[in-house]
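Example record for the data management plan.
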Amino acid sequence: MSGDAVNLLAAIVWLLIYCLIIGLVFALVVWVLRDILGIAIPMHILKIVGAIIFLLVLLWFVAALLGGGALPVPFR
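Corresponding structural encoding:
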């Protein structure tokens, strides 16, 4: 594999790891607000915030594939 392909593959793997972390943080915040603090969050609001997060991650992924996004890849 060439150096560009390895860098792209590393960027995509780290992007997927970042997406997982973002999803876990979102779920943790919702869990803390709902179950621990007892704040009622409407499902409609959660769907809107989830859709915004999804669109931002999709934009980040497309930028990584097109080479325009500078993803922070540790240990490069």
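Summary line stored alongside the record: The chain has one domain: 3-66.
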